[in-house]
Amino acid sequence: xxxxxxxxxxxxxxxxxxxxxxxxxxxxxxxxxxxxxxxxxxxxxxxxxxxxxxxxxxxxxxxxxxxxxxxxxxxxxxxxxxxxxxxxxxxxxxxxxxxxxxxxxxxxxxxxxxxxxxxxxxxxxxxxxxxxxxxxxxxxxxxxxxxxxxxxxxxxxxxxxxxxxxxxxxxxxxxxxxxxxxxxxxxxxxxxxxxxxxxxxxxxxxxxxxxxxxxxxxx
Length: 219
Fold this sequence. Notes:
By secondary structure, the protein is mainly α. Among the domains are: 84 residues; 68 residues, no CATH class. It contains 8 helices and no strands. The longest helix has 22 residues.
């Protein structure tokens, strides 16, 4: 009589699949060992076997604690041994992480970005004077550069002045718009790799030689 094939779907569920079915059987066998000292020694053997799953990881304190936690999980927290670390609580390991709440920022002009909007808020708080005028000028220069990078084209300086005024609620006005005239942004130029032409010529010569061989009775 032929042995009946046992499919994986008929076998017990693998609790941590990365360690494989044999490690799981070894871990569950620990529960059947009655002698405590023998069970402690056997647990260390299982831990050493589990380290083979992490061949490139250093034998650090963090890794050993992780392996012991996984051993307790595989044995459904029923393993009673004198391990180097306390048995983890089921509530800590099985609880879902808290949902992260990302900050939501409303930016009126996305091409200027969040930083420029923050700078405008800071500049509004400055008192009138040379320091505020210099800050406003710097912000306007950044706005024009950001606009040109985003749109990949030039922009009328009046647009920058009007946008600055609107974003600041009419509190910031660029006194000398001539400083924006010389602003330029160098767009990145896509270049082919140095070996591109060389490889292209090699492929062309290879096809030419192959065609010549066929015409002269070659392969």
